[in-house]
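Fold this complex.
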Amino acid sequence: MVAVAPAREAAVWAALADLADPEIPAISLVDLGVIGGVAFAERPDGAERLTVDLLPTFVGCPAIEVMREQITDRLGALDLADEVVVNLSFAEPWTSDRITPAGREALRTSGFAPPVTIGSAFGGELLTVLPIATCPYCASRNTTLENPFGPTLCRAIYHCADCRQPFEAFKPI
Amino acid sequence: MTDLDPTTRDALAELLLAMADDEFVLGFWDSEWTGIAPILEEDVAMSSVSQDEIGHARALYELLAEVTGGDADQIAFGRPAEGYRHAALMNHARSDWAFTIARRFLYEHADAVRLESLAASSYQPLADLAVKMRREETYHILHFDLWLKRLAEGGDESHARLAAGIDRLWPDAQTVFAPLAGEACLVAARILPDTLEAMRARWLERIRPRLEAAHLPVPTTPGSPGADGRTQRTDEFAWLHGEFTMVARSEEDATW
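Structure:
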C-alpha cells in the first residue's frame, strides 16, 4: 500500500461528504448515517477493491439504487481503487439515531422536524406510541400528528397549532 | 450461495418464499386503495404501507435468490398464479375498507410475531433483515390498531362491517401459520426459533384482548390450519396475478 489505510479511508469519507440524499437533498448521505463503513481490500487476483457499506433507511426505499450509483460514480472517478463496490447491508440496522447533529440541523432548516432520539440502537426498544414533533418553523411543541405516513417511507405529516403550518418530520425508527 | 445442506436449504427457501409472497401479494392488493381510500390521509398511508410490504418482499426474494441461485425478479414475476405460496388470507380481493382493515389487523400482528421470532434466527442474513423490518412494521401495527378501534367505535354500520370482515377472514388468517413441509428441519437448525403453531398461539394471545376491547367477536374455530393453507389459489388472486405480472409479461427479459 502506498498510503496508510486510515488516511485513504478518510479520503473516501471526504469524497462522500457532499453527496446529497436523493429524496431530501438538504441532507448528505454521510449525515443521514447511511454510509456504514468503507474498506480497502485486495481481491484474489491482486487488484484492489474499495467496498462501501450502504445501510438503507427503509428496506423498501426506492432511492437505494440512486444512492448506489451516486457513490459508485463519485468514487469511481477518483481512481482510489481498481474496483468500487457498494454493498447493501442490514448487519447493522440503520436507525434514525444515526443521523448526525449537523444532519438534524440541515433537516430542521429545510422544514423537516428531525426525528426524536429514541435510543433506537441495535436491540433497543421499539416505538409503542407515535412520537411528537417540534415545529421546524416556530419551535412549538403544540403540534399534532396528521399522518404517520407521508410522501416517502421515511416521512410523517404534522400540523403546528401555533404557527398553523403543516410540516413533515423524519420518522424516528 | 450458502453452505447449507440441500434439505435445510430447500426448507429455508420454502420459508422465505412463503413470507415474501405474503408481503408481495398483500402489498399489491392494498396499493389499489391509492386514490380511492375513504380519506386523503389513507391514500397516502396505504400507498406507503404497500410500498413497505413490496420492499420487504423484494429483500426476501433477493435473499431467496442467493440461497437457491435464482433471480429475484424471475421469482417475483415469472411464476404462474398456482406457483405462489402466500397464506390463504391473501387470496381475497380488497373488498370494502372495513374488510381491508380487518385483514391488515390480523396480518400485521401475525407478521410481527413471525419477525420477532426470526430476529433470533440462526440464519444471520434473515435475522438481520427481520430486525430491520420489525422496526418499520411497528408503524403498521400502531396504525391499524388505531383503525380497528376507530371502526369498532365509529357506529353500528362500521362495527358490523368490521365484525363481518373478521368473521369471514378468520379461518384464512390462521393459514399465515400453516405448517411448512420443511418446518421440523428449520426448527432443528434454529433457523426458525419457534414452531409455527407456537407462533399462532402467541398471535392469538395478542389479538384476542384487542378484539374483545373493541367488542368484536373472537371466533373459536377452526383451530390449527391445514397443510394446504398456502397452496389454495382463488379466481380473485388469478386476476391480481394477471395485473401485477402484466408489465413483466409484455416485455420478457427487459431490464430496467
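Residues 143 and 164 of chain A are 9 Å apart (CA to CA).
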